[in-house]
Write a structure and sequence with these properties.
Elements (H helix, E strand, L loop, with lengths): L9 E3 L5 H10 L2 E6 L13 H17 L1 E3 L27 H17 L4 E6 L6 H15 L4 E5 L17 H10 L17 H4 L11 H25 L1
Parallel strand pairs: 1-3, 2-3, 2-4, 4-5
Helix pairs in contact: 2-5, 2-7, 3-4, 5-7
Bound molecules: zinc ion (ZN).
Zinc ion binds next to helix 2.
Length: 238
Amino acid sequence: MSSPSTNPAWGLYERLMPTEIEAIFDQHPIAYLPWGALEYHGKHASVGLDSLKAQGLCVKLAQQAGGLVIPTVNVAANTMKTVPDIKHTRHSLNFSEELLRLLAKEYFEQLAEEKFRIVFTLCGHVGQPHYDIIKEEAKKFNQSQSSTRIIATSETDLISEDIVVVNHAALGEVSFLMHTDPDCVDLSRLPQDRVPTLEDDAVWGPDPRESSADKGRAYTEAFLEGAQKLIADTLAQN
Ligand SMILES: [Zn+2]
C-alpha cells in the first residue's frame, strides 16, 4: 500500500476496462461501496443527498487511499416515507428490509469473489433498521470467511460528535453536500422566519441554515482521517 502522500491509483469501477481495473487492484485491492437512498431531504437539498454524499466521500477516500469505487447503491429501507405523521411522503423510494438484506449479502459475496481484501461500505442513509441490517450482514459475512473484510460504516461514525452529529437534511449532511455537490443545495429554500423542523421541513438535527461548503470541507477532512485509520487498522489485523 502506498502512503497517502503519493498519488495512489484509483478509479470508478464501471468506467474501466479489465486491464485498468487489474492495475489498480494489484496495488490497492480495496472496493468502496457507497450505499445511499433516494429520499426527501427537504426543499433545500436534492433527493439523492445520501447517495451523493456517500459517493463523493468514497471518491475522495479512494483518491487518498487507492482502490476502486463501485457504483452507488440507491436501494434503501426505512426512508422518510415510513415515518408516522410525516407530511412529506413524496420523493422517497422505500424498499423492503428483506430486499435490502439480500442485496447487502450478495454485494458482499460478489465483491469477495472478485478477491477484494477490503470492501469499504459507506452508508449515507442511516435510517433504522436499514443501517443495522447492512452492518449485521457485514458482520455475518466476516464471520463466514477470512479473505475479504467488509467494513460497514457511516460518515458520522468516523467523526467525533464534537464535529458532526447524526442528522437528517440538517447542518451536517447539507454541509457535506455543499462541499461535494454544491449545485444540489439551495439554502434560500429553507424557512427564514422560524427554525426548520422534521414535520415541516424534513430537518432533524442542528439548524441547516448554518451550513456551508467550508464546514463540509472540514467535516470531510475529519472523515478521511477516520476512514484511512479504519482501513489501515483492518489491513493490519488480517
Ligand atoms: Zn440523509
